[in-house]
Amino acid sequence: MVKGLEEYIKKYRIRKDKYGRLIFYKAVLNTRASIWAHLTPDAYLDNAEVRCRHFSGNRQLACGSGLHVGTLAFAKNFQGSSRLRIVIQVAVWPEDVVCVPRYALIPGWTYMTSKDSQQRLMSKYRAKIRVKKLRVIKEVTW
User: 31: domain range?
Assistant: First the structure.
């Protein structure tokens, strides 16, 4: 298991499905295409398996290459007010998690340096991790 995953699961109360896959959430375009299409052009259709060939395991980076998934609060916040985006529920095998950024485990507000700029991040809304493969379950409404 990748460093920090067990703590992340406990902190954010990540649940598992009947197969043992971790249940996360992801914001995508309403066409079910990736928001970052130049990185992952796959369509996020129901029951589709999406893979990423290039991913970063660097825990110091808040953002890095890979498929970003996280808590529902993270996905809803990333989705923002745009009508062009939706939130999907996804399942991930624990061995397909490639990185749990350090800031995702720090309680409350924290500062992280990324590409020579500082961002103020609240861990509840920035609780994302990077994975190399996921399975789309369904679109989420709230």
Answer: 5-140
pTM over 0.85: no
- Model confidence over 35-86: pLDDT tens digits? 765 445 567 777 888 877 778 888 887 777 788 899 988 888 875 556 678 8
In three state form, how does the secondary structure of the chain look?
CCCCHHHHHHHCCCCECCCCCEEEEEEEECCCECCCCCCCCCECCCCCEEECCCCCCCCCCCCCCCEEEECHHHHHHHHCCCCCEEEEEEEECHHHEEECCHHHHCCCEEEEEECCEEEEEECCCCCEEEECEEEEEEEECC
Count how many residues are written for the chain. Answer: 142
Higher pLDDT, 112 or 63: 63
CB atoms within 10 A of CB 57: 16
First-residue to last-residue Cα distance in the chain: 32
Q: Is the pLDDT of residue 115 over 50?
A: no
> How many domains does the chain divide into?
1
Q: pLDDT at position 114, please?
A: 47
Residue that is written with structure tokens 């996280």 in the block: 70
